[in-house]
Amino acid sequence: MAVYGYCRCSTDDTKQSVDRQIKDVMELGAEPKLIYTEYESGTKRDRIELNRMLEAISEGDTLIVTELSRISRSMRDLLSILDILKDKKVKVILGAFTLDFTKGDVDPMVMGMVNMMGVFSEMEREITVSRIKSGLATAKAKGKVLGRAKTTLDSIPPLFKKNYVRYKNGELNVTELGRMSEIKSRTTVYKYIKMLEENKGDAE
Predict the structure, then answer these.
(1) What distance in Å separates the CA atoms of residue 139 and residue 89, rounded to the nearest whole number?
(2) What is the number of domains present in the chain?
(3) Residue 127 falls inside a structural domain
(4) What is the DSSP letter of 144?
(5) Which of 6, 18, 67, 164 has the smallest C-beta neighbourhood within 10 Å, fewest atoms?
(6) In which domain, by residue range, is 66 found?
């Protein structure tokens, strides 16, 4: 049976890196070609690589994640994702917790601990967001200009659009797409991919 890995950071690879997570899941048995990585917020349910992993993984497989918050920082989304993995009868290793759905229902005590950690993860995120909003409000009150210029389809480099077609055809993976398009930030690559997928036809 296949052993998958999922690694995520919230900010791009110029500020954070998934390298340590990749190393950890590989040490636990994840196959390099089956490790899905991305730079996206844990509060978002619709993540490209997460969705691809959930679609690819099948009954009897194992999923390894270094910690619960890498899967999601939303309790509702976490339970939704775990339901998918349960329906697929997958063994899930979330840091110190193991949920073996291949055998049906898991130990209620373990599931309870996972739920509790999910609540703490979501709470931690809410506290962080609250502090950021407070800081932004203070800065705005002092007259500081906030935010950055909005990215539009027209601002996506033509080279990226050209290589995106090859990516959609399966000729390039995400890393190759970024490298050949001369874009170092993986977050930017994923952002462009999402914009083009939401506006099909504009990559031509």
Answers:
(1) 49
(2) 2
(3) no
(4) -
(5) 67
(6) 3-107
Distance separating alpha carbons of residues 122 and 134, to the nearest angstrom = 18
Tell me the average confidence (pLDDT) per consecutive run of 10 residues in the chain, 204 residues long: 94 75 95 94 91 96 93 88 92 90 77 67 62 66 64 87 92 91 89 87 50
What is the C-alpha separation between 68 and 82, in angstroms, rounded?
11
Q: What is the pTM of this model?
A: 0.59
Q: How far apart are CA 77 and CA 63, in angstroms?
A: 17
Question: Both tokens of residue 81?
Answer: 């994702």
Structural domain contains residue 178: yes
Q: Cβ(72)–Cβ(45) under 8 Å? A: yes
Cα 11 to Cα 16: distance, rounded to the nearest angstrom: 6
Q: Quick one: tokens of 71?
A: 């899967």
Catalytically active residues are 10
Candidates 94, 88, 93, 106; CA nearest to 69 is 94
